[in-house]
Amino acid sequence: MANPLSADAFLSALRAEGVTVVEVGNWRTHNRHGHGPWGPVHGVMIHHTVTKGTASTVALCRDGHAALPGPLCHGVIAKDGTVHLVGYGRANHAGLGDDDVLRAVIAEKRLPPDNEANTDGNRHFYGFECENLGDGEDPWPAAQLEAVERVSAAICRAHGWSSGSVLGHLEWQPGKVDPRGFTMDAMRERVRDRLK
User: Fold this and answer.
1) What is the layout of strands, in order, in the sheet containing 125-130?
2) How far apart are CA 135 and CA 33, in angstroms?
3) Which SMART domains does this UniProt record tie to the protein (predicted)?
4) Given this model, what pLDDT does residue 143 score?
5) What pLDDT band is residue 100 in, cutting at 50, 70 and 90?
6) pLDDT-based confidence at 39, cuts 50/70/90?
7) Is 90 exceeded by the pLDDT of residue 24?
8) Mean pLDDT throughout 105-130?
9) What are φ and ψ of residue 172, in 5° steps?
10) C-alpha distance from residue 116 to each of 73, 102, 119 (Å)
């Protein structure tokens, strides 16, 4: 069981891993704490946004929309690899997912197929949204993939986790396809190599 990092420790961990960070407004206190607990935390979840354009993507992820209030993640990973911090604490990113997957993440074991949506993921995962159309054709620039690797490794390093604590939204919640355009197995391998 891990308590969430403080906002300062989170920011320091990202910078120590070489992440280029932009702090957006009151990100340290922008959260959904009144709508459920934040923690214990067990992993890092990666998403794609189905959007185009960094400024509008960051605004959407910070503010959310009528059906889903923001923040929609902790950080937005832009095409150029810059990470825009938009919230900290409980965020509307993971939704309900599979308790078997959560147990596997905690144990840092191979993830089982996600076939249930019975567990609050917003409580347990750091979330990063990646600017991408999610159509399987929109490119993933090398700088963006490296930033996904670095943010994942930074949080794993800070908590003493292995790459087994990194997962995609598609591995958590039935019906989700994100991130689309690279495999989470390949990303976990990159994170594992970075943590050596």
Assistant:
1) 21-23, 83-85, 75-77, 125-130, 43-48, 166-168
2) 32
3) Ami_2
4) 98
5) very high
6) very high
7) yes
8) 98
9) -105, -45
10) 22, 11, 8
Task: Check residue 65 and give its pLDDT.
Answer: 95
Residue 196 pLDDT: 95
Measure Cα distances from 174 to 50, 112, 177, 192 in Å.
18, 12, 9, 26
Q: Please tell me the distance from the alpha carbon of residue 56 to that of residue 49, in angstroms, as a whole number.
A: 11
Structure tokens at 43: 């992993």
Cα distances (angstroms) measured from residue 182 to each of 25, 29, 109, 132:
31, 32, 20, 12
List the one residue out of 152, 20, 8 whose CA is nearest residue 78.
20
Q: What is the mean pLDDT of the chain?
A: 97
Amino acid identity, residue 170?
L
Q: What is the mean pLDDT of residues 50-74?
A: 97
Rounded distance between C-alpha atoms, residue 107 and residue 46, angstroms: 19
Q: Return the beta strands (E) in 54-139 as ranges.
A: 64-65, 68-69, 75-77, 83-85, 96-97, 119-120, 125-130
Distances (CA, A) of 97 to 100, 120, 135, 158, 182: 9, 7, 23, 25, 21
Place of tokens 């994170």: 191
C-alpha–C-alpha distance, residues 72 and 58, integer Å = 10
What is the per-residue pLDDT for 139? 97
The Cα–Cα gap between 169 and 122 comes to 11
Residues 75 and 84: their CA atoms lie apart, in Å, by 5
